[in-house]
Amino acid sequence: MKIGVLALQGDFDAHRRRLEELGAEVVLVRKPEQFDEIDGLVIPGGESSTFLKLLGDETFRKLSAFAHTKPTFGTCAGAIMLAKEVENPHQQGLNAIDITIRRNAYGRQIDSIIVEAATALGGDPLEMVFIRAPRIEKVGEGVEVLAQRGDDPVLVRKGTVMAATFHPELSADMRVHAEFLKLVKNGTKY
Ligand code: GLN
In this structure, what CATH number is given to the domain that contains residue 137? Predict the structure, then answer.
């Protein structure tokens, strides 16, 4: 199983390490043709507006086609990239998962925070590291909410797409990445 991590900017290396710990072969994706060699893709945190600037037309098209057809997991800025609607300010989303997401929505004073909450993944509460996080304001039909921060969905999944507004790669807990690898292995059957 080859997993690509989009490596244009942001904390892609922490994802690489985590995926390798879980036994996946990882490809750091920087060029459009690399999308053809991978079975799943992680879009890391970083700055979503910068991702949009750095992606050339061809890489953007490849990324979009991939996210619409193959297992893709976006964290924080990556979740913003995958969204249907992006607010604050409005920017282009790939529309790979039916969520409306608001950038930098938790305010400056608490712009980084660690929260523990129950998760539908089972087991102990999940540690969730939020860094200038976006908030999922609306989820469309059929979008499964796997974890919440208060009333806000923070880990969602539909079909082959997963999105987290926090940074699972910064916690020791491997369950979120393991869940994504399961998705890559089984397609939509989980
Ligand atoms: N604030 C960033 C954005 O709007 C996301 C922050 C992150 O990925 N940690 O794109």
Answer: 3.40.50.880
